[in-house]
Amino acid sequence: MSLLDIYVLGAPILREETRPVTDVGPELQTLIDDMFETMYAAKGIGLAAPQVGRTERVAVIDVEGAKHVIINPEIVLREGSQKGEEGCLSIPDIYADVERAMRVVVRAQDREGQPTEIDASELLARCLQHEIDHLHGKLFIDYLGLLKRRAALKKWDKLRDGNKSLTRSVAALEVAKHHHRDEEL
Ligand code: K1U
Ligand code: ZN
User: Fold this and answer.
1) DSSP H helical segments within the chain, as ranges?
2) CA distance 50 to 54
């Protein structure tokens, strides 16, 4: 398995529509496995293909130990609302409250290409909506009002401190972590 680089805000691929998956085979399954590994290394609860520079309509999720692969997902029911804090592995260290449906039912295909239905609420419902948005080129900051969005983008620019790279390396984070741990021993 491999750790993949994560594309960050400003990368055009994060704004593109994905293309439906027509063939669930070993190539896609390797991508899915690599996405899980990358998501865990980056300490996320979800990851969508555009975030790793891919155009396939696929995302992975692990909320509280429940793993989900969603291929060609569609939200077929939305119910209620919830307001809560959201982050994004493509906009690290920026968080904001976003209003989402409290419950969603999602139809998709699983890692084997079999039809699956996920009936989710609370954090899993939030994460599913966030990941499905990624598959349609939408980011959580798009839901913010003008002032909050401006503040988030200003903070992002400040954190970037002139860094123009469109990707970040999770592998480098892992190396730095191990290096730090070795120094402490
Ligand atoms: O798609 C992504 O960018 C991953 C993102 C998913 C997400 C987080 C919070 C709410 C909805 C969707 C993350 O995992 S960012 C990491 C993070 O903020 C987080 C991690 C664990 C629990 C809660 C948030
Ligand atoms: Zn995200």
Assistant:
1) 26-41, 122-134, 146-160, 170-184
2) 5
Task: Please say if the pLDDT value at position 179 is more than 60.
Answer: no
pLDDT per position as a tens digit, 165-177: 999 999 866 666 6
* Mean pLDDT of all residues belonging to the chain: 94
Ligand nearest to the backbone CA of 70: 1
Backbone torsions φ then ψ of 55, nearest 5 degrees: -105, 0
Residues near ligand 1 (Cβ within 6 A): 44-48, 86-90, 126-127, 130-131, 134
Task: Identify the nearest ligand to the CA of 139 by its number.
Answer: 2
What phi, psi does 2 have (nearest 5°)? -130, 150
Q: How far apart are the first and last CA of the chain?
A: 28
- Cα(123) to ligand 1 centroid in Å equals 9
For residue 91, which of 40, 140, 135 has the smallest C-alpha distance? 140
Q: Is 174 a catalytic residue?
A: no
Confidence tier at 144 by pLDDT (50, 70, 90): very high
Q: Which of 16, 99, 131, 184 is catalytic?
A: 131
Confidence of residue 34 (pLDDT cuts 50, 70, 90): very high
Angle between helices 170-184 and 26-41 (to 10 degrees): 40
The values of phi and psi at residue 167, to 5°, are -135, 160
